[in-house]
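Q: What residues go here?
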């Protein structure tokens, strides 16, 4: 009887040990699976630094939160907040769409090694995890991605998507510093403007200067008082100096070509003096890239080049800057 009891206890003990061993094994397997697919960052408010490296273009950009909780670049300069918000949204809503088929796994690994974007995510000053963002799926509804955490790096990529979004995730992580650059040039209230000077080297008769003080507004053209101004239109003109942005950074010319443009006499020069600061910018007409007759110069009717105060060349829209540099068309009767 005693032997039977001992054998029964042994069987029960083995069963219990087997259950715990199986349960532990399953837990470890789940843990391993999660480490492969747990891309999401639940607390995006704690993300304070993002580093993106594009292995194909060899470009890198770093953005970080400053003490005012505003995103800036590595040097502390302004960046487009909406680009960072797009990344944070992706961190929060990313979700698993599926696994790479076994037959395609090795090829996908090679593709990702050759071309990927490395997105390093930091929380509270510490590295949290890294996304390796690769190619899209053939239907363009999924993106091949691989995850690395402080504990491990996934061996195999998986297919990820985003809740409420149908498309490719890779474009949400650009490593081009120019794409992050804030485009605002100046924004002045009419009351703070002391003077505006426009030099028009294309048509000198349209050059003018405006001076504003407590006694009113005075306008000159080529050193002579300008008599043909509508007072209401002058005030309307001076109200147009708020939220002036450039259209796009320069992607067309290299440094040598930029220097060649810089040596030319500007077509238009804008000088603004306010109660607290001043602003000056040179503009050059842009040959129309779509002109059919290349032996003649056709000027682009939509865009022109501008040298910002720091010397950087940017593309401007006539729609934005035209009403300012062609001010006589605005305020002349």
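A:
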């Amino acid at each position: 009887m005693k032997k039977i009891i001992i054998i029964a206890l042994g069987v029960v003990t083995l069963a219990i040990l087997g259950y715990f061993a199986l349960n532990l094994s399953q837990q470890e397997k789940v843990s391993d699976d999660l480490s492969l697919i747990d891309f999401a960052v639940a607390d995006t408010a704690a993300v304070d630094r993002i580093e993106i490296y594009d292995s194909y273009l060899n470009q890198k950009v770093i953005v970080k939160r400053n003490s005012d909780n505003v995103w800036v670049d590595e040097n502390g300069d302004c960046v487009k907040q909406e680009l960072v918000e797009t990344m944070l949204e992706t961190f929060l809503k990313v979700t698993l769409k599926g696994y790479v088929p076994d037959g395609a796994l090795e090829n996908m690994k090679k593709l990702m090694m050759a071309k990927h974007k490395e997105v390093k995510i930091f929380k509270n000053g510490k590295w949290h995890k890294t996304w390796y963002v690769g190619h899209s799926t053939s239907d363009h509804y999924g993106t091949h991605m691989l995850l690395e955490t402080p504990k491990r790096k996934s061996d195999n990529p998986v297919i990820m998507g985003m809740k409420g979004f149908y498309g490719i995730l890779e474009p949400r992580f650009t490593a081009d510093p120019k794409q992050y650059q804030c485009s605002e040039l100046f924004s002045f209230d009419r009351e703070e403007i002391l003077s505006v000077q426009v030099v028009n080297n294309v048509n000198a008769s349209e050059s003018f200067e405006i001076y504003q003080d407590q006694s009113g507004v005075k306008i000159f053209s080529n050193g002579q008082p300008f008599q043909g101004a509508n007072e209401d239109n002058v005030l309307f003109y001076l109200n147009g100096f708020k939220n002036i942005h450039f259209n796009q950074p320069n992607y067309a010319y290299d440094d040598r070509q930029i220097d060649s443009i810089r040596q030319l006499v500007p077509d238009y020069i804008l000088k603004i003096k306010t109660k607290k600061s001043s602003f000056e910018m040179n503009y050059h007409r842009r040959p129309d890239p779509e002109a059919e007759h290349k032996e003649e110069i056709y000027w682009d009717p939509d865009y022109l080049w501008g040298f910002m105060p720091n010397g950087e060349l940017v593309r401007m829209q006539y729609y934005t800057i035209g009403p300012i540099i062609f001010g006589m068309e605005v305020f002349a009767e």
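A: Context that may help when evaluating the design: The chain has eight helices and 19 strands. The chain has two domains: 44-180, 184-331.
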